[in-house]
Write a structure and sequence with these properties.
The protein is α/β, with parallel strands linked by helices and about 400 residues long. It folds into two domains: about 1-95 and about 250-330, Rossmann fold (3-Layer(aba) Sandwich), CATH 3.40.50; about 100-250, no CATH class. About 40% of the residues lie in helices and about 15% in strands. It contains 13 helices and ten strands.
Amino acid sequence: MARALVGGYATANTDTGHEGPIDDGSFALNHPERVVDFGYRAVHEMTVHAKAIVAAFYGRAPRYSYWYGCSSGGRQGLKEAQQFPLDYDGILAGAPGALITHLQASTIPINDATRPGSAHYIPPSKYQLLHNAVLAACDSADGIRDGILNDPRKCAFDPNKLLCKGAGDSDCLTASEAEAAAGIYRGLKTRTGRQLYPGLAPGSELGWAFAANIRIPGVEQFRYLTFKDPTWDYRTFDAERDLARADEVDHNTINATDPNLTSFFGHGGKLLLYHGWNDPALAPQATIDYYNSVRSFVGDRMADNSMRLFMVPGMNHCDGGEGPSQFDKVTALETWVESGKPPDRIIASHRRGSETDRTRPLCAFPQLATYTGSGSTDDAANFVCAATKTEKK
């Protein structure tokens, strides 16, 4: 809220009707009205009343209204566009947990790879080993070696290449560790191989300790929202059976996957999505999947006029990371809404201490920042946005 105030906005926020730590879902037990508040109603009511307060104080309604949120806040922004399309003129949704039931389910098997004592535990000391191997295998796929994967979808890294050959295992992976790492990249699938939720992208390895910390909300979702049983044991989890139950119970209350943004776009609303490729919490491919579903539903012409997605190489969950991840997305959205100029290229920077050591353009998906072949690879001026041939459908 402080950033918005500094920018001259009247600003509001909401706790969605409950207080408590991220690893406690007990607020929802036997309180379906609280689940609805958490899913969408609290944000809408906050918006309605905030506008009324602004109008009462200033004597006129706000000229423009914007939503800015990342992670759960990104999901909330999508719900606003889907269910209350007139609430906002522009929505900035970063790393949105749109398919929340499947996202939370995907954290349960990740638990086996990140929980000490598990048979598939990967010690954090080996995250760097994996990360270095990924970069060695895939960093040069974009024509330059810069410690960043420009498009991890082009990286077919196999953790089995790090299998131990002798007794020592400090600089290699045991068979169970390699299997667990491959599972994290692979994502959540049924026994027949149907994809239920994408895996984390190659390059995200240094953040897997963070992934370990977010596994608890996944368990809480199934305990308190899906099965309404605080004693539910995640070790009984069956992806196909239990996810079908979770989706049935949710009934589009928290999930924000509706691709029909016709009403939001129809009144001039603009949606700016962004997601870091190194995100260890929410699979980046899931945001691409939602973006593609909207395009398919509303058509390319409306989508081109009203929606942009920026995938950010080297960025972690919402911000930070090895790549340039600081960029002025708010101004980009404002300019689009208020001047009609869509953002197709946004300059991002990376800071080391107090100094900016790299800039790079972020390109509207599916284009990628492509090196021109001359000049410093740390200077955005030496890159152009170009189409990629590797868009995953």
